[in-house]
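Repro:
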Amino acid sequence: MRFTKENTTVIIEASILSADFARLGEQAREAEAAGVDAIQVDVMDGSFVPDITFGPGVVRALRPLVSLPLDVHLMVVEPEQHLEAFANAGADRLIVHQETCPHLHRTLQSIRELKIEAGVSINPGTPLSVLEEVLDLADLIQVMTVNPGWGGQLFLHSQLDKIRRLRRMLDERGLDVPNSVWPAIAVDGGIDSTTAPLVVSAGATVLIAGSSVYNDKASVAENVATLRASIK
């Protein structure tokens, strides 16, 4: 399975970090029925970020339950030790953090060699300059608009300028993130119907939404519809 743009302008991925852990499969299916384009699985190790969440077994369990791509966000130290396990479990893309990859170029190459998409994420305090030498290897660049570690945080408006600068960087170099089927600038953290239009206007094309999809205010279908309507 590969990520495809189809007829949508902006890709919405539901992050199951905010789902009911006792009903992960059911909640992933709810998001698929609601019309999201992919499911993001946030993997945390208790070292790079405070919390501990999922492993390859969760990806393997989700794989037969949904037809959507599974996007695995590795918030872990030494992610290169786990690439093959997650790919074998059914991940369609692996996103690693620049901050945990001393050999980022090699790590992205290793992901590509597994025949899946490669993504790189950067924290709010990380400058874009660290990505200049690997843009040709990334199918997706994910800008964190919260400090990673847990869901439900407030959006950092200071990162809007980073998204704009990243879009300019790609445009100036004639890159729409090579080998990807859309200009894949993803934004993760505090995405809801208020912030989604802001990041799309800044140049984002992939939105990772957790607590705005999974909450007790409305159904998953209603929340996804609200988010989609906000960016039309």
